[in-house]
Amino acid sequence: MAETTNTQTGSGRKTLVGQVVSTKMAKTIVVEVSRQKAHPLYRRVVSRTKKFYAHDEKQTAHVGDFVRIEETRPLSRLKRWQLKDIVKRATLVGGESTAEMTGEVSE
Fold first, then answer.
1. What is the rounded (10 degree) CA torsion for 65, 69, 75, 77?
2. Which contacts (CB < 8 Å, 24+ apart) does range 46-52 have?
3. What's the predicted TM-score (pTM) here?
4. Is residue 29 part of a domain?
5. Is residue 37 one of the residues assigned to a domain?
6. What is the pLDDT of residue 84?
7. What's the structural domain count of the chain?
């Protein structure tokens, strides 16, 4: 359910908004961007998703975060995007805090 914004910034580079689906590589995140488009024949709205590899220098993004990525020069065979900022942090499942998960809750 990530939204796409193909807006041109002042630098003329494209930016997209998507959800982080993987952070298993060093300094690389996988961002899934979904967009909705009308089918050319049936005129029904169809959802399309695409994954982009983005450079995350400080490794600040986590799985589930909504992030804004920006187009850049080729950094590797697959990476052509870099993390610009984190739009929305992911919440924990069930609304539990990290203290409750580690057993540090005092009664």
1. 70
2. 51/21, 52/16, 52/18, 52/80, 52/81
3. 0.75
4. yes
5. yes
6. 97
7. 1
Name the strand (E) or helix (H) holding 98. Answer: helix 98-102
Residue 85 located in a structural domain:
yes
Residue range 15-32: average pLDDT? Answer: 97
Mean pLDDT of 11-25: 95
Classify the C-alpha dihedral 82-88-94-99 as positive or negative.
positive
DSSP label of 92: P
Q: Is residue 80 part of a domain?
A: yes
Token match 């939204």: residue? 3
Q: Residues 49-59: pLDDT tens digits?
A: 999 999 999 99
Give the residue carrying structure tokens 């193909």: 6
- Tell me which residue range forms the domain holding 48: 7-102
Q: What is the CATH number of the domain that holds 28?
A: 2.40.50.140
38, burial (CB in 10 Å: exposed 0-12, middle 13-18, buried 19+): exposed
